[in-house]
Design brief:
By secondary structure, this protein is of the alpha/beta class. It has a single domain, classed as P-loop containing nucleotide triphosphate hydrolases (Rossmann fold). Helices cover 52% and strands 12% of the residues. The protein is built from 13 helices and 6 strands.
Length: 302
């Protein structure tokens, strides 16, 4: 008895009409996707066929991009390059999930994820940037910052964790400090993961219902919706005063988490000329409707 694939292959060889051949190729590709781990899981869970195929396509695209990330990591290690990628955005914007996909298959000895807790009593008395400087990338290393010194640009002033003088001093100093780091050879990328107020509310509600995600909710998160406009004000101030030609803010539309993950990885890969890049089997051109440099005239989601 012939398999489905053998039957489709016979049909493909028999038909002459181009449109019919295209339909057979589509069916062949669809059956192949359904045979994958993700496809079979979707069938077991009785998901709609279109949704299953979309999930498989996402997994395949992600894997190809992750292969390129491994090439990038090897290049950075072999050439003693220092790479730091900052992830900022509102609560529930998908920063942690994106970092997880960035690092999923990387060599753990050649990268670090930095997610600092609130400063200790000693740290509050230090030069503000001092505790972050401890975590800057070493030669050959990629460091992912899950939030960064930009806490002082939004979170701290919104929730009263710093004085106006401390805020003003930070805003004035940060462009100069970033310029010095980049001038010293650090490759720096700053992401802002952007979501709508409605999307944030929906994700908070999902976290409350899911016992595996409830740990993500903090007292600060619970105030985020009420303080939406105040956060927006400080966010725009941050962009206008810390977006520079040498250290631009890259805005990622993250209302769709999976698309945001793919396109943010694609953006990083597009910015660095690592070895083997020309042999990539996946597009390294990010979608300009999803990823774009900040501009004052841009229409921001949040």
């Amino acid at each position: 008895m012939k398999t489905i694939f053998q039957t489709l292959n016979d049909l493909k060889n028999e038909v002459k009409e181009t449109n019919l051949k295209e339909k057979i190729l589509f069916l062949e590709d669809s059956f192949r996707k359904l045979r994958t781990k993700t496809g079979l899981k979707g069938l077991i869970r009785k998901k709609k066929l279109r949704k299953i195929l979309k999930e498989v396509e996402y997994e395949e695209e992600l894997q190809k991009l992750q292969i390129e990330l491994i090439k990038l990591q090897n290049w950075a290690y072999e050439n003693k390059k220092r790479v730091m990628i900052i992830f900022e955005g509102r609560d529930a914007a998908g920063k942690g999930g994106a970092i997880k996909r960035f690092t999923e298959h990387l060599n753990p000895r050649k990268y670090r994820v930095v997610a600092l807790p609130k400063p200790t009593e000693v740290e509050t008395g230090q030069f503000y940037f001092q505790r972050y400087f401890k975590h800057l990338p070493d030669p050959g290393e990629i460091v992912f910052f899950d939030r960064s010194w930009y806490n002082r640009a939004i979170v701290e002033p919104v929730f009263g964790f710093c004085t106006k003088e401390q805020y003003d001093k930070f805003i004035k100093e940060v462009p100069e400090i970033e310029h010095a780091l980049i001038d010293d050879g650090i490759i720096m990328i700053k992401f802002w993961f952007s979501i709508s107020k409605e999307t944030q509310k929906k994700r908070f509600e999902e976290r409350m219902k899911n016992p595996l995600k409830q740990w993500k909710l903090s007292p600060v998160d619970k105030k985020a919706q009420k303080l939406w406009d105040k956060i927006t004000y400080y966010k725009e101030e941050m962009f206008s005063k810390t977006h520079t030609s040498y250290s631009p803010w890259i805005i990622v539309n993250s209302n769709d988490k999976k698309t945001a993950r793919l396109e943010s990885i694609r953006y990083v890969l597009s910015q660095i000329d690592y070895d083997g890049k020309e042999k990539s089997k996946v597009s390294l051109h990010p979608d300009p409707d999803i990823v774009q440099r900040y501009h004052r005239k841009n229409l921001q989601i949040d």
